């Protein structure tokens, strides 16, 4: 994973509507990048729905959430709509962003990982789950965020 204290690499990716979204457009806000293996998989769905159910905790901390996987914008649109996800999903189809952040697993898939970036664009926290069959529960994620 990318080291804490380092500048977060900028990127521009399409969202679920095909609009291009750049990390730099969030300068002045905290951003949580949530890397996940794929839409509509059991663990990813549980993870993102857990974050959806607790989105007020991110809002209270002034954190914008961006979900990233290699799935297409169309897949993200369907997935977000079906599960009423209130945050932006970005299509990293070439896995360039996952690679830049060190979030590629041994099978070439995006790991289940997250990176907290501060208002100035510096990495404050980086974490990845070794096994893609589990995810960091919201309460544990918030503890790590609050400690960062």
UniProtKB/TrEMBL annotation:
Family that this chain belongs to: Belongs to the peroxiredoxin family. BCP/PrxQ subfamily.
Q: Give the GO biological process terms.
A: cell redox homeostasis; cellular response to oxidative stress
* UniProt KW keywords: Antioxidant, Disulfide bond, Oxidoreductase, Peroxidase, Redox-active center
Q: Which GO terms describe its cellular component?
A: cytoplasm
CDD domains, per this entry? PRX_BCP
On subunit structure and binding partners, the annotation says:
Monomer.
* Active site, UniProt feature: 44
Q: Which reaction does it catalyse?
A: a hydroperoxide + [thioredoxin]-dithiol = an alcohol + [thioredoxin]-disulfide + H2O
Instruction: Please state what the protein is called.
Output: thioredoxin-dependent peroxiredoxin
What Enzyme Commission number(s) appear in the record? 1.11.1.24
Q: What does this protein do?
A: Thiol-specific peroxidase that catalyzes the reduction of hydrogen peroxide and organic hydroperoxides to water and alcohols, respectively. Plays a role in cell protection against oxidative stress by detoxifying peroxides and as sensor of hydrogen peroxide-mediated signaling events.
**Protein species of origin:** Chlorobium luteolum (strain DSM 273 / BCRC 81028 / 2530)
């Amino acid at each position: 994973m990318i080291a804490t204290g380092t500048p977060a690499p900028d990127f521009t990716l399409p969202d679920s509507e095909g609009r291009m979204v750049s990390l730099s457009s969030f300068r002045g806000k905290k951003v949580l990048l949530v890397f996940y293996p794929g839409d509509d998989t059991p663990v990813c769905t549980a993870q993102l729905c857990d974050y959806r159910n607790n989105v007020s905790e991110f809002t209270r901390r002034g954190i914008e959430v961006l979900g990233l996987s290699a799935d297409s914008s169309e897949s993200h649109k369907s997935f977000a709509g079906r599960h009423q996800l209130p945050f932006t999903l970005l299509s990293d189809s070439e896995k360039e962003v996952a690679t830049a952040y060190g979030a590629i697993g041994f099978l070439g898939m995006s790991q289940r990982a997250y990176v907290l970036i501060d208002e100035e664009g510096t990495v404050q926290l980086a974490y990845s789950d070794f096994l893609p069959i589990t995810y960091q529960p919201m309460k544990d994620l918030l503890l790590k965020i609050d400690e960062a």
